[in-house]
Task: structure prediction
Amino acid sequence: MRVARFSTGGDPVFGLVELAADGGEHPDTVAVISGDPLASAVQFTGERHALADVRLLAPVIPRSKVIAVGPNYVDLARDLGQELTDTPITFFKPNTAVIGPDEAIIYPDFSNEVGFEGELAVVIGRICKEVPPERVQDVIFGYTIGNDVSARDIQFNEAQWSRAKGFDTSCPLGPWITCHLSVEEAQNLRITTTLDGALHQNASTSDMVHSIRDLVSFISSYMTLLPGDVLLTGTPGGVGLMEPGQTVSVSIEQLGTLANPVVGSRNNPAGAQQ
Result:
């Protein structure tokens, strides 16, 4: 099951996506469902749209929080000169940072070095606290793709990362939530990131230092997780900087592709090109 949040010109609605690769009766369509699947049972309305005719939105706008993880791949820690820790390093991105597929990442006028970080994102499906690793499957609603966009010059010059990683448009999510994967399947997916078609990141989620089960268990040990909370599981090596006018695309097998153009801010139309 793939849950999309989309618009046909009016208010956002939810639907279930059926792709041609599935071999179903309605290839590349989205069937509208009533309500929010994170809050109630799925009920079809009978309305269906071609996927090409709808505007996909961020599949979830967290009511509570986006929790991101610091270095969780050996090659990233090496690239950035950071040390891996015995316990995960976590931080928050506000829900106002969330955007969807094809929405613009706005280059902030306070930075000259904005980078991409393609990541597997875990969507929590139920209220939970102190989840043991063996019960993590029970609290996950599904998986989507995230991009932990970061102002690198700010990140490495300020003790806290709120400004560097929390600015508006710094958390693209999408294109939908894939719900049919087990934790073990999600832990063995190829993840790639391209910038204007050039490959920068190419790794597997199996390369994580702290696994999905360990991350959910650790984070829930000190905070309550709510339905719709998003956990960004860290990015592999190969991160790089973006310029206004470029497009960054993050792909994860079985999940799809999340692409976003980069544009200059209102106060600094040329961004880093000034």
About this structure: Residues 193 and 250 are 4 Å apart (CA to CA). The helical segments are 74-80, 136-139, 152-155, 162-166, 183-186, 212-220.
